[in-house]
Amino acid sequence: QVQLVESGGGLVQAGGSLRLSCAASGSISTINTLDWYRQAPGKQRELVAGITSGSSTVYSDSVKGRFTIGRDNAKNTVYLQMNSLKPEDTAVYYCNANIRSGFVSRNYWGQGTQVTVSS
C-alpha cells in the first residue's frame, strides 16, 4: 500500500509565501509523475503544477512565475513553493502521484491541505 501525506498549508496574507510538501511512503518501486491540484469551494479540482520523473515541469497559467514545483527522489517527496500568493489561490491543495509498485502503476491522492490567503 502507498500513502501520500501533505503538509505546509496554512493562513497567509496576500503577497506572502508558503511551501507545501507531499511525502510518499509504502510499497514504491518508482515514482513517475507528481502533480499538485487544488480545489476551491464550489469549483472543480484543477491542475496547478506537475513534474515528471525527468524533472520536466508544467504549470497552470494562473500560477506561472509565482509557484515552483520540485521533487526529491531520495525522499520520495514533492514540493510546491508558492510565492506572491493571492486571495484567489485559496483552496485545498492535493498532491497526486503516479507510482509503480512491482508491475502495477496507479495514481494516488493525498488527503489535502488547506491554503487560505487573506486580502
Characterize the structure shown.
The chain is mainly β and 119 residues long. Helix content is 0%, strand content 61%. It has strands spanning 2-7, 10-13, 18-26, 30-39, 46-51, 57-59, 67-72, 77-82, 91-101, 104-109, 113-118. Strands 2, 4, 5, 6, 9, 10 and 11 form a seven-stranded mixed sheet that branches. The protein has a four-stranded antiparallel sheet with strand order 1-3-8-7, with no helix packed on it. The chain is elongated and about 45 Å long. The mean pLDDT is 97.
In short:
With 119 residues, the chain is mainly β. The chain contains no helices and eleven strands.
Reconstruct the topology from this structure.
Layout: E1 2-7, E2 10-13, E3 18-26, E4 30-39, E5 46-51, E6 57-59, E7 67-72, E8 77-82, E9 91-101, E10 104-109, E11 113-118
Parallel strand pairs: 2-11
Antiparallel strand pairs: 1-3, 3-8, 4-5, 4-9, 5-6, 7-8, 9-10, 9-11
The poorly predicted ranges are none
- Class from helix and strand fractions: mainly beta
Mean pLDDT metric: 97
Count of DSSP helices? 0
Question: What are the key terms here?
Answer:
single chain, 119 residues, 4-stranded antiparallel beta sheet
